[in-house]
Amino acid sequence: MTKMVIYMQKAGSEESCIKKFVRWLIDRTGAGDFTKTIIPRHALHPMYSLGGLASLMFFLLAFTGIIQLMFYVPAFGEENIAYESVRHFTESVPYGFVVRGIHSYAATLMILLSMLHFLRVYFTGAYAKPRELTYIVGIVAGLLSIASAFLGYSLRMDHISVEAIRIGQSLILQLPGGNWLYSLIFGSGAFDEVIPRFLAFHIGVAALLGIILLLHFYMIHTHHISPPYDDSEPEPAIPFYPNFLFTELAVAVVVIGALVTFSAAFPPELGFKFVFGKELPVGQPEWYLMAMYALIKTGIDPVLAGLVIPSIGLLIFVIMPWVDPLYSRHPMNRRIATTYGLIFVGEYLMFFLYGQLTPGEQIPLINALLLAIAIALVMGYVGFRLTSKPVPPKRTQKQRSDDAPSYAVKVLLKNVWWIAGLLLVSALVLGGLGVLNHLSENYYDAAMLFGSSIIMMGWSLFVAKIGLVDAKYLS
Predict the structure, then answer these.
(1) Confidence check: pLDDT of 12 > 70
(2) What is the spatial distance between Cα 103 and Cα 110, in angstroms, rounded to a whole number?
């Protein structure tokens, strides 16, 4: 009995030492403000996680990009060495298809999530004072993401990449001072000069994007999360640490596992190898450039279609914090901003679909013009109707419900450790099977199993977090 008491005292002191170490670490890293932050209830909506997920994609891109740099050969030669190095990495290097798949899918997701994050910020008026500059810095980060993605997929040197490079060359040559810009970006224009330059630009733009993201995070931390768009008072919900932080960590683990699994199930494609004199199908650009490509295919001046019109459309978004009267942040109370946003989204989707459905074909200018006018009228009418009945502000603070937790929550809390344990065991079993397949050099099945194991590990962490720190908020 005495030994048991001594053991428990040691355990207690050990736990105390751990807590002291955590407090010391938080204090020395200056993270005390983060640990004291309370996340408001409206910020727990999934739409508020889009920016964080886009940032996760950036870190995955940096990690997988460094690995690919070890195998990539930035040269063309006589037989397209760069393309062969990408194919070798994908097909011959163990798990190369997973690394390249994560890189490819993460790039697509980063741009998609950034676009959705921007639309959430824009339509909810989250750019209101004092967050105007945070909004603009976010737009700059989005543009850098697209630029970095364009430079990255051009390095594959397949028929799609070469088509993108040639369109870029023609656009640059038609700009004022185009010859000087051309020599700076493309050198002589030979692929043996273009490839290493694009690789350097790709890395440089990605590094600049990382700096801009850090600035964006700092500004968000300084000005805090924007209040609810319906003008109600923010309702404190859960602490940032440990509740919200562990939730984000668990979600990140699940997303990484899903990307590994998806990359194994659907390895990234590689277009046709470009060789001079060989006839190849016309390459279509990546989806995020398809609308601009469709506009170029109408036959109007490429600079006007590829740079001027998109720049004007973007500039209106940039100045909107100063154009929008913002007596209310509710989208139904902001006719100018809401209507313009709906028209822009409608035009973007229309040109995207038009370009997607007409590979290698010209788009008649009159057809595109009529469709653009029709979309503008329809979306403008929708915006007008949505903003015809202003929504009154909600000044009273929302009251938390005192109702008892639901049956599902009760079952979860009662069996939380059984569920977490079962998920953990499943993760270990799947990981063990993955190791066996790896030893048999069955890398595709091993990657599928490893990805599934990571997903289960993430869910186990999430459920364990509920039992450890969320139980009092749910009960």
Answers:
(1) no
(2) 10
Q: Which domain holds residue 380?
A: 286-390
Q: What is the pLDDT of residues 243-279, one digit of tens each?
A: 888 899 999 999 999 999 999 999 998 989 998 878 8
Reported pTM: 0.90
State the alpha helices, DSSP H only, in 232-334.
245-265, 290-296, 302-303, 309-323
Sign of CA dihedral 253, 255, 256, 257: positive
Contact assessment for residue 403 and residue 439, using Cβ atoms and an 8 Å cutoff: no
Q: Which residue in 320, 279, 305 sits closest to 139, CA to CA?
A: 320
57 inside domain: yes
Angle 159-173/132-154 helices, nearest 10 degrees? 120
Is residue 401's pLDDT more than 70?
Answer: no
| Amino acid identity, position 5 | V
How far is CA 88 from its chain centroid? Answer: 28
- pLDDT value at 452 more than 80: yes
Neighbours of 168 (CB within 10 A): 19
Structure tokens at 173: 């040559």
On whether both 232 and 297 belong to a single domain, the answer is: no
Integer Cα distance of 383 and 152 in angstroms: 37
Instruction: Report pLDDT for 30.
Output: 67
1: tokens are 């009995």
Same domain, 120 and 186: yes
- Is 264 a domain residue? no
Structure tokens at 184: 């700076």
In the chain, the number of structural domains is 2
- In tens, the pLDDT along 102-151 reads 999 999 999 999 999 999 999 999 998 899 999 999 999 999 999 999 99
Residue 365 CA to residue 351 CA, distance in Å, equals 12
Query: How many CB atoms lie under 10 A from the CB of residue 378?
Result: 13
Q: Is residue 418 part of a domain?
A: no
What distance in Å separates the CA atoms of residue 181 and residue 1, rounded to the nearest whole number? 82
Are the C-beta atoms of residues 256 and 60 closer than 8 Å to each other?
yes
E strand or H helix at 240: none
Long-range contacts of 347-350 (CB under 8 A, 24+ apart): 347/291, 347/372, 347/375, 347/376, 347/379, 348/291, 349/291, 350/375
Q: What sign does the CA torsion over 30, 35, 36, 42 have?
A: positive
Helix axes of 50-69 and 132-154: crossing angle, nearest 10 degrees: 30
Residues 207 and 315 in one domain: no
Looking at the structure, do residues 309 and 229 belong to the same domain, yes or no? no
